[in-house]
Every structure is written in structure tokens, then in C-alpha cells.
Amino acid sequence: MQKSALILCVTLAACACRVATAGNPDANDPDAMKRLTARDWTVPGINLNMRLIPAGSFTMGSPAGEIARDNDEQQHKVKISKPFYMAIYETRQREYYPLMVRPGFDLEAWRYQRGPLHEGAAWTYRSPMNGRNIATPNIPRTDLNPMECVTWDKAMVFCKKITDKERAADRLPKGYVYRLPTEAEWEYACRAGTRGPYSFEGDYNSLRTLTAYACVFKSKGYKALATSPTPDSRKPNAWGLYDMHGNVFEWCLDWRGPYADGTTQDPAGPTHGTERVARGGGVLTFEPSADSLAKLVHPHFRSAARYSFPPRTAYQINLGFRIVLAPEVEGKGLVP
Description:
By secondary structure, the protein is α+β, with helices and mostly antiparallel strands. Helix content is 18%, strand content 15%.
């Protein structure tokens, strides 16, 4: 077992985060948010909760001896030069639908357990899932579950719509936009100062330890697969972010490619590619045994674990996203 430890190089950044909370600026104070001094920010209209992530440096990737390590996780130093806000939760259905489902479609009128994918809704739509797509008029919609079955492009459109609205309202820090996190920003925020396999301590080969922080499985069988409401009873990482491990894979801004050598600042991945990075791992269709964690969970759920999908992947029922309010990345900050 490898325990997490705080990286010394983020000490100053953590102090900066504490300073930002002085006076406890309100989560709905746009002036404090624009100055990057509000610890929390709630996106108006859709009530999407975000947390300030301090600037700092960290070691990205994993050491050679880490469990289930892949050969493209070589360690290297990364500097995140500016603070940014990251969504506390994976983008949930109640935040996604108002901006992305066509006007006039009656979400409540769809009574089935699986969502109307043809209308851009999620697979997990009403709970509990029982493997049969039957009408369930008395079961509420799963508004607190993460949005899934969404392409990289649609995730970016969601970000652009928020950016356009908030820019018109003069509620953006200068040079900042809503977008997907870079792979480096994602791992930096996930680790929250730790450098072990996960952003928490404990026995990583214990399913009980993992499920205290991660949604590893929810139901049995592909037809009955469902995500979990967030945060449910799971714990956040040290920076207050939930489900950085499990529930749904999370799209990142980057194309998948090898890491650059040496120390880098604000890396955003290759300029082109065939698959976009997705991080964090997604809910399984069955409860894994202790013996299978190394094969089924650790390769995808660890802080350094890398995965990717073609950007037009539309019906992956454990693939979603989480947004950031961060400096615009030239050529990548908005929909290409």
C-alpha cells in the first residue's frame, strides 16, 4: 500500500487558497470571483457550484512501481501558473438540460427509466434501473446524477453557452472562459496536494476504502447500469471536489499524446490527434472482487491513470465531464 503525502511545492498555493477565504466572500459575489478571491462560485441560472483551485506546481504522472501503472504515465514537473475554478461535481443533469435540451421538449413527460437519448438526455433518467425500459410514473428523474452519453463537442458547446452568457453579463475574470480542464489541470485538482495512487489515504485494495470516495459500481448487468447521484454519501478530496475517481469518465480538453519531457507550464496536450483524454474512471456494471481491483479499477480510477475516447463518442453510458472557469487556451478554449 502506498500512502498519499502532501507535495511541498503546493504549500504556498494552499496558503494562497486559505487567504482567498479570508472574510468568507459570498459564493454569489461576482466581483470577488472576478478577482479570484472568492473560494466558491455558483454559476447563475443553472446553480453549478465551483471551487477555487490555487496556482501551484506538482509532479504529474506516477512512479514506476505504482499499482496498475501504464507506460505513458512518466513523471514530470508541471506548473499551473494561475488559479482557476473547477466544478465541485461532475456536470449533473439538472445543470445540463436547461442549456442543451431543445426548447419545448417536456423532460417530465418522458416516463421511462432510460432517457430519450435521441433528445440529448442521459441514459440514467429515472431510478432505480431494473434492466427493463418500462414507464415509471411515480419515480423522480435523476437530476443529481452526472450527465453522460455526451460527446466532447457537446460538452464544449455547454461550456461556450455559459461563457457567452457570463461574458454578456460581465461576470468573467479577464482572459478566462468556461471550458473543459486540461489533463494537467484535472490531475492537479484531483491530487489536491497528494502524490499517491489516489487522492485519499487507506488500503487501495479494499473496496470499502475506495467506495468511501469513488462510485465504483452501482448495479449489475449492462442493461441495468446506472450512475450514482452526486455527491451521495461519498467524501470529497482535500480541495472539496467530489467523484474525481469513478461514477463517470470526465472529458478533458487535450488530445491524447505522450507527455512532454522536462518541466512544463500550463500544458494543453498535442495540437492534433484522434482521441480526447478522459480521466477518473467510470462506474462498472458489476461489483468487482478484491482480486480484480488491479485489473478493473486501478488502471482507470487512479489519479494518474489516462484514458481516451474518439471525440464523437455519443453513447458511452459512463462518460461525462466536469467544467472549469480558467484562462482561455489559444485555439482550444472554445469550440473549434
